[in-house]
Amino acid sequence: MKRTHLPLNALRVYDAAARHLSFTRAADELAVTPAAVGQQIRALEDHLGVVLFRRTSKGLELTEEGCAGLDALREGFLRFEESVQAMQAGQASDRYTIAAPREFYAQWLAPKLAAFSAENAGIQYQLVADENADFTEANLDIAIRLVDGPGDLEGVQLAPGERVTVHAPGAAETWIGYPTANLPEGAQASVQVGNPGQALSSALAGLGKTVLPLPLAAEALASGKLIAVGEPEPSQRAYWLIAPLPQWRQKKVKALVAQLTA
């Protein structure tokens, strides 16, 4: 069914004028001139084909037609306000839904979220393991992906794009590969895994050498669990925090991004 066009501005003016029974006081409430109020009321009367107000010796009065729809109109405005509050609930909420690679969450993101929670009591997180999850279907606030850029979304790079070859002390002189590992030319992987996180676990277990994003290997390198072979090298792929533009306008997302990029 086709919806009737509603002159919402004029209806808001009518509601104010009906409450005050004065165009002047209605104008003060709405921060417009009394003439503008009168113009909106006349336009509304022309639109509806009825007279809403009459002037008497006692002042402004509502006509019978003007009284007829007033209660429903005010209830409608309350519903509008409830609707706007519901749409803003996600922005005002302290709940974050984040998609991130498991290994990056464990090695890099979790400590950052802990620090953010320490400064903002009541924060709640829901983590989605599939970093490529659809934003709408998963109701995501942000996603973190190991990519060469944000693509069609808005994004900020969380760490420099660097990779490093690593192995555990005493590890076998073999290679651990995964689809985006980009091993050195001529290297043959004797262990093939599905992602950088599995490659990290394999390297820590001593199964061989592999090439990892530097942020993923940083903690193990610092603790001596892994040893770097040579210096880190530039990489086109880096960990990016990405989201559609509307998410970036949310106050809660801005606050979290500031924490993660500090």
What does this structure look like?
By secondary structure, the chain is of the alpha/beta class. The protein has 3 domains: 3-89, Arc Repressor Mutant, subunit A (Orthogonal Bundle), CATH 1.10.10.10; 93-159 and 239-261, D-Maltodextrin-Binding Protein, domain 2 (3-Layer(aba) Sandwich), CATH 3.40.190.10; 162-235, 3-Layer(aba) Sandwich (D-Maltodextrin-Binding Protein, domain 2), CATH 3.40.190.10. The chain is 45% helix and 23% strand. The chain is built from 11 helices and 12 strands. The protein has helices at 8-20, 23-30, 34-48, 64-68, 70-92, 102-119, 135-138, 196-204, 214-223, 245-248, 251-260; strands at residues 53-56, 59-62, 95-99, 124-128, 142-147, 154-157, 162-167, 175-177, 189-192, 210-213, 227-234, 238-243. A 5-stranded mixed β-sheet has the order 4-3-5-12-6. A 3-stranded antiparallel β-sheet has the order 10-7-11, with helices on one face. It has a two-stranded antiparallel ribbon with strand order 1-2. The protein is rod-shaped and about 100 Å long. 26% of the residues are buried. Belongs to the LysR transcriptional regulatory family. This is LysR family transcriptional regulator. Keywords: DNA-binding, Transcription, Transcription regulation. GO terms for molecular function: DNA binding; DNA-binding transcription factor activity. It comes from Altererythrobacter lutimaris.
